[in-house]
Amino acid sequence: MTLTDRFDLGEPMPAPTASPEHERRLALRRSAPAQDLTKPGPSPAQIQRILSLGARSPDHGKLFPWRFVVMGPQSRADLAEKLKALVAQKGLSPKSVAVLAKLTAAPVSILVVSTAAPGPKPVWEQELSSGAVCMNIEHAADALGFSASWITDWYSYDEDALPLLGLTAGEKVAGFIHIGTASEPLLERVRPDVAAITTTLP
């Protein structure tokens, strides 16, 4: 398949085949520190590809309970200034300003907004779908040769900050996915002992 392959609705999909390269990418996947992401970042066409791949996520009921906001450097710089003013207004800690460096460093950021709402499927499942989208966006960025960082930080939960992000009533931040090129080699981090947290049933 090529990057432009599309399938008609109801058309049979190719069966999965073993892919050592895909397995290797999953084994080596590592989030990059957001503040260390630099140019080059994805092109507009690559961003659209990343979003298309991200949207191929589990979604019970085909509700598409999420939306995307693609943010370049200027929009994030403007947002950071508004958030700094909010920090001063609310008397938040200096750390609340320091973390904004993670918001402005990368060439591009994709804000994934959860639009989950009561309806035919549980809200929790819809929110899980938003998380799956965030992870798929990270995988897609990796597949195109970029590093990514999925973060939230305080402004993703502050009721006064949410309008500055363009969120409306009932919407939540699933995550900011910052995408670019890591300025330093990524170091491995602690991973869980999978056997210790796994129960196998007959």
Q: Report the mean per-residue pLDDT as an integer.
A: 95
* Helical stretch tally: 6
The N- and C-terminal alpha carbons lie at a distance of 38 Å
CATH architecture: 3-Layer(aba) Sandwich
Q: What class would the helix/strand composition place it in?
A: alpha+beta
Please provide a brief summary of the model.
Strands 1, 2, 3, 4 and 5 form a 5-stranded antiparallel sheet that branches.
List the helices and strands and how they pair.
Elements: H1 20-28, E1 37-38, H2 44-54, E2 66-71, H3 73-90, H4 95-98, H5 100-104, E3 108-114, H6 123-143, E4 147-151, E5 172-182
Antiparallel strand pairs: 1-5, 2-3, 3-5, 4-5
Features:
single chain; alpha+beta; NADH Oxidase; five-stranded antiparallel beta sheet; 6 helices
Describe this protein's structure:
The protein has 202 residues and is an alpha+beta fold. The protein has a single domain (31-184), classed as NADH Oxidase, CATH 3.40.109.10. 34% of the residues lie in helices and 15% in strands. The chain is built from 6 helices and 5 strands. It has helices spanning 20-28, 44-54, 73-90, 95-98, 100-104, 123-143, and strands at 37-38, 66-71, 108-114, 147-151, 172-182. Strands 1, 2, 3, 4 and 5 form a 5-stranded antiparallel beta sheet that branches. The longest helix has 21 residues, at 123-143. The radius of gyration is 18 Å and the shape is globular. The model has no long low-confidence stretch (mean pLDDT 95).
